[in-house]
Amino acid sequence: MASRGGPRATGTDGSDYQHRERVASHYQMSAALKSEIRKLTYVHVGLWLLLLAQMGVGHLKLLPHDQVAMPYQWEYPYLLSILPSLLGLLSFPRNNISYLVLSMISAGLFSVAPLIYGAMEMFPMAQQLYRHGKAYRFIFGFSAVSVMYLVVVVAAQVHGWQLYYSKKLLDSWFTSTQEKKKK
């Protein structure tokens, strides 16, 4: 085999060993999935900061209530949804399976559950808005229930994809640990 700086084996240019230089598929998949989860985490942090800003402006009365409504109750527990994302990011450097599993479980509790509760909490107001055209809460001139339903839909998609990619990542990590045990 040819060394990096030394002489090559006679009769070869070193290209016959390229098949040994491929990265195993589960390592490639792990890197790709980590990248996707990071991107989704950045989107989640952006949504989280928007909700935090809306809650801060509502509570501190920086703007009149006809500009920014007081937050709905589901928004308070949703603030804890940043914890599962951080746990997921902490699991990446050393492929820590336990952190990733904790991230997935706590995502269901702190991310998905408040979104489901929020959809149910806002449903009567959405019904009233679309049946009678009456809205009592506003965010910069838009119906607060419409804006918050949009946030719920986007957040549900972000968390759904995070959980899906986390499960795939967990599977790829188990594949690599099973192959190590076989050797």
TrEMBL record:
Pfam families, A to Z: Jagunal (PF07086)
Protein topology in the membrane: Multi-pass membrane protein
A single cellular component GO annotation: endoplasmic reticulum membrane
Any one biological process term the GO annotation gives: endoplasmic reticulum organization
Swiss-Prot/TrEMBL keywords: Endoplasmic reticulum, Membrane, Transmembrane, Transmembrane helix
Transmembrane segments: 40-56, 99-118, 138-158
Alphabetized InterPro entries for the sequence: Jagunal
Cellular compartments annotated: Endoplasmic reticulum membrane
Family: Belongs to the jagunal family.
Name this polypeptide is given: Protein jagunal homolog 1
Source species: Anseranas semipalmata (Magpie goose)
